[in-house]
Amino acid sequence: MTDQTFLDKLKTGWNEGKFVCVGLDNADLQFNKTIVDQTFDLVVAYKPNIAFYEAAGANGLQALKETIDYIKEKSPDVPVILDAKRGDIGNTNEAYTKAIFDNLQADAVTVHPYLGKESLEPFLKRVDKGIFVLLRTSNPGAGEFQDLEVESTKEPLYQVVAEHVAKDWNTNGNCGLVVGATYPEELKKVREIVGDMPILVPGIGAQGGDLKAVLENGLDSNNQGLIISLSRSIIFAPDPREATLKIHQEIVDFLKP
């Protein structure tokens, strides 16, 4: 349905017990179609990382557009999160929003918070879209800046950013956060700060994050709220559907009363 917001689509998936997000990190259209055909009924979202498409030049960007189009044709209720990690001054972000939301027709995007709320207004004002703010990322060196203590609050920077997003940036109810699966204790703290906001969690699978720890620390008050993203461990698996189904079933089993 074209009038569904990003959050509407997410809630539809969560209500059906779907939490897995497949990262389509490959600029081969036929490859992506095959992955989508095998997984669309099991996932809450798809997350193409734009870098892999940009690296392939004009043909790669065309493959990205056609991949998103195919997802919307195959399963209109499954949203597409473009992992683009954008964040610049306002007029540049205006151009990014047109490229990502209007041209590519993505449902959501990842963004950097470093330039502050004012710079991200072009994204935040798109009330039907999802805006995922990088918070506590999954890479080993994430703490270099993200863990720095902010003098005024005596809290690490990632927690201060979480508070700003939850209390000030999310006026349209379209914000989410990105927290890596490799930091479950930080995920727990973020969930306490942001309440029931969506949290995108990369880092399960190839990066070594623990699924049970993510579920124990990241589910919201409705036992929902998580988008658990896997890329290489699904798309390059001998049987991508079986790999997706395995994670999906582990989540279903965890949530059983």
What can you see in these coordinates?
By secondary structure, the chain is an alpha/beta fold. The chain has a single domain, classed as Alpha-Beta Barrel (TIM Barrel), CATH 3.20.20.70. The protein contains 12 helices and 10 strands. The strands form 2 sheets. An 8-stranded parallel beta sheet has the order 2-1-10-9-8-5-4-3. Strand 6 and strand 7 form a beta hairpin. Helix 2 packs parallel to helix 4, helix 8 packs parallel to helix 9 and helix 9 packs parallel to helix 10. The mean pLDDT is 96.
Short description:
By secondary structure, the protein is an alpha/beta fold.
Low-confidence stretches: none
Q: Report the sheet with the most strands, covering strand number, pairing sense and barrel closure.
A: 8 strands, parallel
Which CATH-level-2 architecture? Alpha-Beta Barrel
Number of strands: 10
CATH topology: TIM Barrel
- What is the 3D form? globular
Structural Rg: 17 Å
CATH class: Alpha Beta
At the fourth level of CATH, the homologous superfamily is Aldolase class I
- What is the count of helical runs? 12
Distance between termini? Answer: 32 Å
